[in-house]
Amino acid sequence: MKKRRIEFIIAFILIVTLYLILFSHTSYAAKAGFVLLYLSALMVSIYSLLLENRSPQHTLLWLHVLVFFPVFGYLFYLFSGQLYLKGNLFKNKRKNDREEWGRLVKQESTPDLSFLQDSQNAFVKYADHAADTPISTASRAFILKNGKETFSEIKKMIASAKKFIHLEYYIFRSDRLGKEIIRLLIEKATNGVEVLFIFDAAGSRKMALEDIQAMEEAGIRVQVFSPLRYGFFNQKLNFRNHRKIIIIDGKIGFVGGLNVGVEYLGENERIGFWRDTHMRLEGEAVYSLHTVFLLDWEYVSGEKVFQNYQKEMVEVDNEIIDGAIQIVASGPDTQLGLMSDFYFAMIASATKSIWIATPYFIPDEAIRTALRVAAAKGIEVKIMVPEINDGFLTQYASRSYFPELLRTGAEIYSYKKGFLHQKIIIIDGILASIGTANMDMRSFHLNFEVNVFLYGTSSIRDLVAHYEEDMKDSEKISPVQYYKRGMLERSKESFARLFSGVL
After folding, report:
1. Which pLDDT tens digit goes with each residue over 358-407?
2. Which residues carry out catalysis?
3. CATH 3.40.50.1970 at 91-109+141-319, yes or no
4. CB burial class (10 A; 0-12, 13-18, 19+) of residue 2?
5. What pLDDT, on a 0 to 100 scale, did the predictor assign at position 1?
6. 338-502 has the same fold as 91-109+141-319
7. Where is it predominantly found (predicted)?
8. Class of the 338-502 domain?
């Protein structure tokens, strides 16, 4: 908080002194003093930027913003450019999470991964070292292809809950679907089932107050992640909880790309068909996914509840053997850029094929390089994105990265049936990732995310089959035609790309 106060004092000095320099009728000597004070405050902000040790190009970019856009540049830097602020803002949560994960991993026995292929082994060694979470061979994953399959299964499992229902969502709407789930939760709560519910303040800002009150009156404990009324002054506004998690009795878990709202069922006329992928988990992986939720609950509620669910989480079927599964949480509560590193390592491990489906394709430099090198080596690289995105900047920023990949032989497909929202990576048909993290800077650096990494599981075959079906509803982008796009399209891409760092 001390650092925050200093930054707002600097912003105040910049605003006041600039106003006095430009609009006051004081003497030249007074204005010279104001200029000196303004430059001093600017130098302090520049020095603070230099201490962050960013890459030289990013440092120079923000230096230009600070110098050539007085006041507004500094305010934009405070709320959009300080990705490293999470080191201070979430220091206590990160410390607590690592301690809990460390205790859990020590309790785990080393799984037998001898069934993995060489390319998988290389990635798994990295994953085991980089993440705090254990790798499980006593788990099973079931792919849910769309909203209809997903919410039908979710409602059925909620209705079957005996002990507790824990859920966490970025977007939870008070529309028909949302109210159906709320009614189920209230019914279970009134029958003695414990219900804990976290929703993100920004993503779920339109959730009806009467729905929240009805849940609380029924005994459901509701917590808001990073309330907006506090976010502006402590700068947590920019860091959102993008996770979608449901845990039923410690035995069933749900995670993936689907929030709660009728548009995810394809019932929004403006958006149309919604293509997404979710996952149902059983076995030890639920243990890890539940841990992610409980650590978030402790953060938002201030309660120490983790130990209350140890017994529930270890009640799993140890005979389930279907490849290996790892839950990886990323965000301000983990090391910087963890999910980006995982994506890069996956891509670098490929020997035959790399298939990606993402709604927002705004990769960092390392991932772009890995994709270009893979394509140049003759590895099949397929990238599927929606034909029409849900935002101007995300759509055209994504397209700005197409030329460099098309030149190296990567194939890019435009999904035309509706809006593609799934976040899938499939490597060589034997390694896959599915979860909440997009391939963009916000998911890599700002959002709290959670992904499931699949190593040789039977569920990967379903992902492969679904990807091949989606290709039938997609159009391959012709490099020749794309290079012929007009100057207006190029200008839109170049403009949108300027904002890639905060998209």
Report:
1. 999 999 999 999 999 999 999 999 999 999 888 888 999 999 999 999 99
2. 242, 244, 249, 421, 423, 428
3. no
4. exposed
5. 52
6. yes
7. membrane
8. alpha beta
